[in-house]
Amino acid sequence: MAKKNKGNQPVKKSRFTDLIAFLALFLSVLLFLIGPILRKFAGDLGIQIADIASVVAEVLMVLALALPAWYFARKRGAFFKVLYVILLIIFVVGIVLGFTL
Predict the structure, then answer these.
(1) Pairing with 83, which of 38, 45, 56, 72 sits 20 to 30 Å away (CA)?
(2) Distance of CA 50 to the CA centre of its chain
């Protein structure tokens, strides 16, 4: 679905990005509300569930940001494309290290 803006350029709306952003927001709110309760009263299993849900929320947030960032980078040239890939790799390494350490 394309909308017209002032310059008569079509503006694309990504429903997938919207869904990912909504899921990330939902999981984050759920973690803020239920995470401390799980960590305090559910023992080791609660801690593991809260940790896994936290990682999923972080990944969804990055996806919600990464998709529009890619649309921006691909229009700007090779430097921004390379920078985008480097930042994405650093993020994935950070997630893996943060989860394993």
Answers:
(1) 56
(2) 17
The CA distances from residue 57 to 31, 47, 52, 80, in Å, are 9, 15, 9, 26
How many whole angstroms separate alpha carbon 42 and alpha carbon 29?
Answer: 19
How many other C-beta atoms lie within 10 A of the C-beta of residue 62?
19
Calpha distance 96→90 (Å, rounded): 10
Series of mean pLDDT values for 10-residue runs along the chain (101 residues) = 54 70 78 76 79 76 80 89 91 78 68
| 2 three-state secondary structure | strand
Q: How long, in residues, is the chain?
A: 101
**pTM of the full predicted structure?**
0.58
Residue 40 has a CB neighbour count (10 Å cut-off) of 10
Helices (H), 1-101: 15-41, 43-76, 78-100
Angle at 32 between CA 29 and CA 34, to 5 degrees: 100
